């Protein structure tokens, strides 16, 4: 199989892997929300900050360093494996000993035991990090997708069964830990790598030299992405955190999938064109316009149908999720263009600038956190929206200088797609306010109306971004048909 074929195959299975995870989390989350209360989701949300930050330290950027290195040796893999395992044990012990302090910080006694048990996931994950790294390095996403499907299905079943039989918040912990454990076991069974009893200081220094920069960037981003759980859990009620958690998980299904696909697909495409500045700029423009048009339609569409979606899927006790979800959808519309502009910096070899911009953007987010503490969660989300918009100008300014495509040019190119998406989804939202049907019927009706308006209007006016995306899909189908015939 050629490099191009391996890449295309890897991208397909990477997309499938992400889709399986997101859909499984979405479906299982809906069922658990029917069985559990916002308070129980809020308790686990309080601990996510500490678990995610610890997991970032465990990897320490070594996975990226191993994937980047061409001639990895068995000693390289074993060195990282034992480092990951050792640091995971140390961090688990720290969390175990600090669990009482964390519990007192949030004034929730249950958190002590929950963190002591949930923290075991750090060690379980550390056992399988190298296995996943090796599969990624081989561009073997097919096996990872297979494992994700099995682990998501089984762990989801375990969590639902525990919730059904009255285990409460422990059903969320059981689902998480069982997912980690099943994934780790399957990776060890189906991947043929085994560590050797070796640890090389030279290998460690070489890999950490590159990985340390990645660790710094990932750590900053992880803190930023999860600090809102910490703030809401401390200064607001557990129930409010539960509502925010569910809204964030709803928003994540389309936004994370789009961003992930854009990251994996566009990076190699743009990297292959970096020697030709004209082609690079033209390809980047097409990617910006088409990806943002899709994002506008999906995220604004979710905002438009938020109320019937929450009521039909979660029930009336989760109604407060609606306001948070609608605001978060507007925050998420910027994610793809952030990814694309940061990809330019990475492809052009400006990882130093990448890190500096991450630091600047996160410092700018501090007022948003203060606003949330002093005013409300909604005010904090509005601050996130403003921060994300400012971040767009920061990212696009520097990437624009490298390729001659500045912030205003990017805005000019994406505004038509935004206005069309606002018109379509604004109509859907307005009709939803006028009609009073049961939530499930309203949800189905609004989705059908939105799709009909989107395809109908785009076909009639032959909207350029739509025509470009349609052309890619038709071309792909024709290639598949020609292979079958």
What does this entry look like structurally?
This protein is mostly helical and 485 residues long. The chain folds into two domains: 235 residues, no CATH class; 248 residues, no CATH class. Helices cover 87% and strands 0% of the residues. It has 20 helices and no strands. Helix 3 packs parallel to helix 6, helix 6 packs parallel to helix 8 and helix 10 packs across helix 14.
Question: What's the short story on this structure?
Answer:
The protein is an all-alpha fold. Helices cover 87% and strands 0% of the residues. The protein has two domains: 235 residues, no CATH class; 248 residues, no CATH class.
Would you spell out the secondary-structure blueprint of this structure?
Blueprint: H1 3-35, H2 38-59, H3 62-68, H4 74-106, H5 110-118, H6 120-137, H7 141-164, H8 170-190, H9 201-235, H10 238-272, H11 277-304, H12 306-313, H13 321-332, H14 335-347, H15 351-364, H16 366-374, H17 377-403, H18 407-434, H19 439-461, H20 464-484
